[in-house]
Amino acid sequence: MLQVVLAASVFAAALAVYGTIGLRWRRRARLWRAFLGRVATLEFEPYHAAALKNEESGAAAAELLRGGRLDIDAAGAVLLTETGRDPGPLPAHPVPAGLLEALRRHDPEPVSIGWIERHDAEYATVRFAHREEREALLPVRPRLPVVKEGSFRACCGCVGVVLLVMCWIAAAELLVVSHPHGVLEWAASGVTALGLGLLWYADGAAKAVRARTESGDPLWDRIHDERHPAVEGLDERQRLHLLRSLDDRGRWRGIDRAVGDDGAGTDGDDTDDDGLWDDDWWDDDWSADAYHYRASDASAEGSGPGTPPGTGASTG
What is the DSSP code (8-state) at residue 111? Predict the structure, then answer.
């Protein structure tokens, strides 16, 4: 009869443990399925999808580039065209409109998209306002129940685990020392062994439930392969120039470009035939209104491209 009592006790314990795990799985799965359903019905505005990937500035620049409002050279410097300088209607969407206004504030200085994205406060305000407006429409990710440390439920769980371990050890010991006789006792012993095995893997089952109901980011899965239509319409050369402009976040470009009579930017060349800097690199060929020497940038860049040797931070 000992084997029958052990089988009934272990089976009841396993039923209680796995019943709790199953109920938790059912609750968490119901919340997760509801969230996935809301995500599946979302219709992402192109700039919202780009904003979720932090790519809205590139999409806005691509739209302005395709619209003939700006040009990006091989080094990533952005220059407004005559269409971009024309104080006509702004783009309908606030992000490209904000980027165009930021470029106009720097015009005729050539700047990079990355520099504006990082340093232009007004454009940052436009970007974040658009993000907040669109993110308010997103479904809220379900907050799955979590037991806090030190709470009453956590203490009860710890006590339950200790008691379950003690019962498991006692049942396993009794199962080993007992000597079943007959079909009924052997069958009860088999049920006891099976129940002990299930209890042994109960923690792994609970972890699997948590992993399957918390894994992945459905919002990211929806937008991962989506690209803004304006970016898709760029050719390979334009896309490469745009990426260089987006990656250039720290360089002030006003000093290393010249402005011609027509207002278009041209690469400055103030070196002698032997590659040394002319003594008159600061003469009237540079537009004083367009370019402003910044000591902080010169200190950071030293004698980098577009900065004459000796104009870095003073050493003495």
Answer: B
**171 and 200 in contact (C-beta within 8 Å)?**
no
CB neighbourhood size of 117 (10 A): 22
Q: pLDDT, tens digit, for every residue of 79-100?
A: 898 888 888 788 899 999 999 9
Confidence of residue 76 (pLDDT cuts 50, 70, 90): confident
What are the tens digits of pLDDT across the range 115-144? 998 888 999 999 999 998 888 888 877 776
CA 119, 89, 252: angle at the middle one, nearest 5?
A: 20
Name residue, tokens 């520099």: 115
DSSP secondary-structure letter at 256?
G
In degrees and rounded to multiples of 5, residue 153 shows phi and psi of -65, -40
154, 147 Cβ separation under 8 angstroms = yes
Whole-number pLDDT of residue 155: 78
d(CA 21, CA 210): 10
Instruction: Report how far apart, in Å, the C-alpha atoms of 212 and of each of 26, 140, 206, 220 are.
Output: 12, 19, 10, 17
